[in-house]
Amino acid sequence: MSGEKVSYNVADSPEEVTPPQTSSMAESGVDIAYERKIIRKVDFRLLPILAALYSISIVDRINIGSAAVAGMTVDLGLNIGSRYSIVLMVFFIPYIIFELPSNLVLRRVGPAVWLSSIAFSWGVVTIGQGFIEDWRILVLCRVLSGFFEAGFLPGCIYLICSWYMRYEVQQRLAGFYFFTNLITAFSQVLAYGLMQMNGIQGLAGWRWIFIIVSLITVVIAFLAYIFVIDFPDKLLQRSKPFLTVSEVEIIKSRINRDRDDSQADPITWRIVVRHLSDWKLWIYALMFMNLGVPGYALAYFLPTILKGMGYSIGMSLLMSALPAIPGVVVCLGFGWWADKSRLRAPFIALGTLFIIAGLSMTAYSSHHRVRYFGVCLCTAGQLSNVPTLFAYQSNNIRMDSKRSVSSALLIGTGSIGGIFASNVFRAKDAPGYRNGFWAAIGCQFLNLLLLACMTVYFKRKNRQHKEGTLDKPLENHPEFTYTI
To answer: Which residues form the Major facilitator superfamily (MFS) profile domain (predicted)?
Structure first.
């Protein structure tokens, strides 16, 4: 079976997609039911541990917002000048710089070793944040956290996309992101509970938020070393295999008949530079940066916004968690529908409209219920667009080396959205943050424009492919077409 490939084109609309029928697949030696059984094994082994680790990394990263309303701002003097914005911003500088180098190391040392090691490291650093007395030491801790966390999300996306066919991947990314954001959202509730430890061992409640959650990170890091799996082409060489040799060959065969890149191609800095010269990768990254602005803004500033509406600290933290519930429902629903329809752009556009409407309600309505509904609507659009954009860029590239570069560039550039949000949501504008909301809305309109341009370009290239008028094959493969 592994020696035979079944190739088919992926066109730019559901009506034009012509996958092989089940009978023809059977004639080619492909047992669809058996393939699905293997994929379920991969799902259960790969996704839960990565989602658990990423969720706790996000919790570690954004707990500073909960700690701020729990007394850290006063204790460390973060309410003086722009100190709080500086503390938020410095995280992203090493986070952006070390995304790509981390992905290159990941391939060489293996996901289990690398991902568990950096998770353990940032967990230790974040525990230390619970004991600091000077805001400048907090700045140093945030820089170290950004350095260690830099490689985690691009590594996860790179690894997940390496195991699945193009029109299976968004459901998996949505599931990964669903679990992550559900845990992340209710970390606000956990933070409120940990605040009640105020005074135990002479430590303020905000310090226990950092200490307890980061201890959980360290424990999960040890589990990751045991359970995280390698890439398909390396699984039998470096990891204790959970699949047989024939099952691994089936996985590789599926990938080859989808995009013909199951075997990793060599990667050097010259190849990295060549991939970075592809302008499309920068468009995906810019879109992800724009998407990151409302995401980071809500993560860092929502408790403050809700407190400004007159809610107590505890109620603000609780209400910060609840928008994730409708958000993950929309995220999973869009993920299933997008894979079934083999479309991406319409779902990105719809999610972006949700964000624009939600931000506008929150910024301008005088009714607290309408403003809060706006938060829910914005959260739904933002949560659904993250895995959709991951899938959009992954579906429209080939070669393992390019996937490594693209995922790192996407997330690294996306982190600039965190820097942008940290600066446009200024302390002096609290709790309304009107200027910040307008900046976030403007980023979403830019995304709609970029998406429209990419759609026109992809449709034109797919049409030229169909007519045989292309100067060279798309993504260096004669049967590749772009996903709209």
So the answer is: 46-464
